Every structure is written in structure tokens, then in C-alpha cells.
């Protein structure tokens, strides 16, 4: 059984840590391996679906550095005060373990036909609902599809540890709501709600421990987006795909 520890930080944000003495179990490893058999959508640089491949094949770094380009999403969940939920990925995650990142990150899967719906990114939003429930215990009723705001897309590549990396067109999704959280310890080891004014200090304290996609967003767009949280038309762009390096 995982013990929840709640600590109030001097910067006025709360962090919850989840852990036990056993740390990584065979069951968790098997679950991570099973998810590598799920199928992601392969896309071209214009985000047209051109096929599908297992999650494992989508993330394997080939000898020449090639990683198949595939579709993904990143959720930025804010509470009604405007604080951003960040998570720390669990130690036994196959890609980017123990790294801090945005609220929830994953992929629409071809295993679920409805997640291919491209009308206003509806399929990606449905995938986000599914993954928010799996990773953070958020019931879909708490994040209805009309509350999930599709902001833009980014394209980036990172070779990770040399075995598994990322090459994604990543849909950026915003949600602003107060929700009940019950993090899945197979996926998440810590969660933190960070106020905008405390973010710079928090980011500096974790230098070198971010996922690559969040690090690129953080350096290029996050503050601007965050400052327009109540004016999303200012930041929404469904035409261009931002190439971040």
C-alpha cells in the first residue's frame, strides 16, 4: 500500500509524494511492458496519419538516430486559482523516469477508433480523458470534452537515453478546473501545484530533471500561455505546428 505524504513548501505550493519500501515491483514492470504493445498513430510533418506502430517501435532509437514521428498530447491542468499541476514520472517508467513534466502526457491510440477523430482534436481530447483517469485518477465527468481546450501543436525530437526517445507532434491541451486527484503510483511519484509567481524558482531547483517536451515548452512558450490563461484566443493556433529545438 502506498503512503501519501503532504508537505507544505515555503513557496506556498503543496507536493505529494507516493512511495513504499518495495519501490519497483515486477507487476509494475509488466504493466509498463504491456503498454509498449499499444499502437500509436504515425504521422507526417503535416500531422497526417500515415500508419500505426507499437509504442515500443515508436520510441526505439535506431542506429542512425531515426525515431518514427507519431502523434501525442500534453495536458496542462490548472486549478481555478491558476496554479499548474506538474508531476514527477515514476522511477520504473521506461521513458524519462524520475523526470518532472506537465500534468499528463501520452498518445492517442489506434486501439481506440474514436481517438482518430480529428474534428477539433476530438480524438486527442478523448485520449486525454482516458489518460487523466489512468495516471491521476481524474474521472472523465470532471474534465468533460468541452472543458479541454486545444491550444496548438509542437514538433520536437529527443534521443533520450539512446535506446528510447521521442519524435512527436504533440497537441497542447489546457484545462482549468478543480478536480479530485488520486495518482497512480505505477505512473506518478509526485504531484505539485505551482503558482505562476513561484514557477521560476521551482524550475531552477529542478534544472536537468525535466522531460524534453516540457523543457522546450517551458523555455519557449509556457509563460506567455500561462499569462493568457483567461484569454485563450490570444494563444490558440490550429494552423501552424511549432518546431521546437
List the topology elements:
Layout: E1 3-8, E2 14-19, H1 26-35, E3 39-43, E4 49-54, H2 55-59, E5 70-78, E6 84-89, E7 100-101, E8 104-106, H3 122-136, E9 149-158, E10 166-176, E11 188-194, H4 199-205, H5 212-220, H6 222-227, E12 241-243
Parallel strand pairs: 5-10, 9-12
Antiparallel strand pairs: 1-2, 2-11, 3-4, 5-8, 6-7, 6-11, 9-10
Gist?
21% of the residues lie in helices and 30% in strands. The chain is α+β, with helices and mostly antiparallel strands and 245 residues long.
Count of alpha/pi helices: 6
Please give the order of strands in the largest beta sheet. 1-2-11-6-7
> What's the β-strand tally?
12
Summarize the amount of helix as a percent range.
10-25%
Low-pLDDT ranges: 1-25
Structural class of the secondary structure composition?
alpha+beta
Largest sheet: 5 strands, antiparallel
Overall pLDDT metric: 89
Proper CATH architecture? Alpha-Beta Complex
**What is the H-and-E element order?**
EEHEEHEEEEHEEEHHHE
Strand content: 25-35%
- Shape verdict: globular
CATH fold name, please?
Nucleoside Triphosphate Pyrophosphohydrolase
Number of domains in the coordinates? 1
Rg estimate, integer Å: 17 Å
What is the class in the CATH system?
Answer: Alpha Beta
Distance, first to last CA: 41 Å
Function: Catalyzes the 1,3-allylic rearrangement of the homoallylic substrate isopentenyl (IPP) to its highly electrophilic allylic isomer, dimethylallyl diphosphate (DMAPP).
Cofactor: Mg(2+)
GO molecular function: isopentenyl-diphosphate delta-isomerase activity; metal ion binding
Family: Belongs to the IPP isomerase type 1 family.
Amino acid at each position: 500500500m502506498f503512503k501519501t505524504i503532504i508537505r507544505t513548501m515555503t513557496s506556498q505550493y503543496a507536493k505529494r509524494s507516493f512511495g513504499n519500501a518495495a519501490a519497483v515491483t515486477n507487476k509494475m514492470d509488466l504493466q509498463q511492458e504491456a503498454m509498449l504493445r499499444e499502437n500509436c498513430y504515425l504521422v507526417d510533418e503535416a500531422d497526417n496519419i500515415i500508419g500505426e506502430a507499437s509504442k515500443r517501435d515508436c520510441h526505439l532509437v535506431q542506429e542512425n538516430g531515426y525515431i518514427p514521428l507519431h502523434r501525442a498530447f500534453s495536458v496542462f491542468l490548472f486549478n481555478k486559482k491558476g496554479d499548474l499541476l506538474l508531476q514527477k514520472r515514476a522511477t520504473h517508467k521506461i521513458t524519462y523516469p524520475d523526470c518532472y513534466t506537465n500534468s499528463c502526457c501520452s498518445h492517442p491510440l489506434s486501439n481506440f477508433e474514436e481517438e482518430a477523430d480529428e474534428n477539433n482534436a476530438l480524438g486527442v481530447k478523448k485520449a486525454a480523458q482516458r489518460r487523466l483517469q489512468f495516471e491521476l485518477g481524474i474521472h472523465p465527468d470532471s474534465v468533460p470534452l468541452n472543458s479541454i481546450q486545444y491550444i496548438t501543436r509542437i514538433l520536437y525530437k529527443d534521443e533520450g537515453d539512446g535506446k528510447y526517445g521521442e519524435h512527436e507532434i504533440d497537441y497542447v491541451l489546457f484545462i482549468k478546473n478543480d478536480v479530485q486527484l488520486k495518482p497512480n503510483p505505477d505512473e506518478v511519484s509526485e504531484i505539485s501545484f505551482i503558482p505562476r509567481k513561484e514557477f521560476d524558482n521551482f524550475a531552477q531547483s529542478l534544472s536537468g530533471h525535466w522531460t524534453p517536451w516540457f523543457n522546450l515548452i517551458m523555455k519557449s512558450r509556457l509563460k506567455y500561455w500561462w499569462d493568457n490563461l483567461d484569454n485563450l484566443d490570444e494563444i490558440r493556433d490550429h494552423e501552424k505546428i511549432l518546431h521546437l529545438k
